[in-house]
Amino acid sequence: TWTMLNIVEEQVEHIRAQVGEGRAICALSGGVDSAVAAAIVQRAIGDRLTCVYVDHGMMRQGETEQVRHDFEEVFDVLDVVDAADQFIDALAGVRDPEEKRKIIGREFIRTFEAAEARVFGDLEAGAATAYLVQGTLYPDVVESGGGAGASNIKSHHNVGGLPDDLDFELIEPLRTLFKDEVRAVGEQLGLPSTMVWRQPFPGPGLGIRIIGEVTRERLDLLRQADAIAREELTRAGLDRDIWQMPVVLLADVRSVGVQGDGRTYGHPVVLRPVTSEDAMTADWARLPYDLMERISTRITNEVAEVNRVTVDITSKPPGTIEWE
Ligand code: XMP
């Protein structure tokens, strides 16, 4: 933990030098990475940092309200932007995973540019450099093809998904760290443990967990199924043992089922529980059978249109954690 403290101090100095008397905005997602990045930058430049949270319409059930509640106490200025229509419209008709990721990365930047103009516009009239704080980790860089000897596995929204005409100068204090190190820094900085130990959730959100086109209806379905799975995992006391458990909607697949005394023709969802140290590799998690049964029964009973629940038993490699 000496090293963790050193990293924080080093970054604080570096950011002070970089930003000078300028101002920065931080892209907060609700997750630990961006929270820790924001906390470090706040140490460096105090209230010249403004945190922006974008609701892109692909967040999980109750998430935006929860982020608003949890973060407003820690970071005094929290700008919450409702950009759901903008993102979902931009994704209309798109099925390719990389294309989705690039569109989402681009729309994030457009939203932050608008937020920057709104928050700082009157102060600086476009004169100074615009700084954007991101919680980018080392694995995000590697998987997006930025690390030594790495190939492009998938474009993380905050790295390979960035548009070419980026106007922001980036501040990424966690770019050399793994998630366990980020959590250690978060604890050192005194962030609440709900924030520090939150399971990872990808920036592109449920958009990369719908296999097929992203639509509002499909997002609603997936949100319901995901909420049930998360609720049951928490109830089983497994939140810390399981690294994360994406629920994936196979939106273009239908299968025949029977429920009550009628035929159904609905979509399958896939549970993707994994254990991992750093998300670079992962093992499929052996969930207790009774937990899987509860999740399956509840999802098929409570989510109209989902009539089958399956479990992904592929490790990483050869699978990745997310399906897209
Ligand atoms: P994969 O699917 O590559 O995921 O095995 C590794 C970890 O990264 C998360 N992930 C992302 N996080 N933006 C993020 O902030 C992204 O674009 C992104 N893609 C994947 C994933 O949830 C897992 O924890």
From TrEMBL:
| Catalytic activity from the UniProt record | XMP + L-glutamine + ATP + H2O = GMP + L-glutamate + AMP + diphosphate + 2 H(+)
Instruction: Give, as one word, the top-level EC class.
Output: ligase
Can you tell me which residues bind ATP? 29-35
Where's the GMPS ATP-PPase domain?
2-198
Functional summary from the UniProt entry: Catalyzes the synthesis of GMP from XMP.
Q: How is the quaternary structure described?
A: Homodimer.
Per its record, how is this protein called by name? GMP synthase [glutamine-hydrolyzing]
Organism annotation: Nocardioides plantarum
Q: Please state which portion of the whole protein this structure contains, as first and last residue out of the total length.
A: 202 to 525 of 525
